[in-house]
């Protein structure tokens, strides 16, 4: 008898695996709508949608394994990381999705609020927050929007034989900054940034990617703590911030 595996679960949504089927449960139907539409528009492999009955979306499992996990060394080859970069470039070259993405002023105000919270609640040392806030500000510049995945963690990219078999979790997709996707893909795995950029195939501003590493980590820590995750685990968000020192 097949067991139910809890892939991820918190009070906003949950993903379960039963055999070769993933069940995504999300009370926010707009988020599931984005996921379904983004997968239909994306020019790269995505999971097959088996059925949808709100609040549940059933997806077929992808072949292969995830590119890696945050906080753990990746066993994927340089060629696999380069293939991921090439897939991201294909996505970014595609026509824009019809819905909007992040706004610069929203990001700036969120950064202010989260940095204040981290310091006021003694979550992180003041100098660590101040340094990374300064680094993060380089991401707050005008960009040409692309079709952005929006949550391109390495656990969302599946590879087999150094080829991309699919990308999952499209609920944050929209119009956005190309370098944000590249930053999230390499967060905590700076040693593979060169492979990803080589596969991406065009010049990128590495300082902006590093800025997004700081930005994403500063913005995520409170949410992670409130939802039962540990951003201070080895190789995770707090270590990413310390690396900028």
From TrEMBL:
Keywords: Transferase. The keyword RNA-binding does not apply. InterPro entries: AGP_Transferase (IPR051678), Aminoglycoside_PTrfase (IPR002575), Kinase-like_dom_sf (IPR011009). GO terms for molecular function: transferase activity. Residues 39-201 form the Aminoglycoside phosphotransferase domain. Gene3D superfamilies: 3.90.1200.10. It comes from the Bacteria. This is Aminoglycoside phosphotransferase family protein.
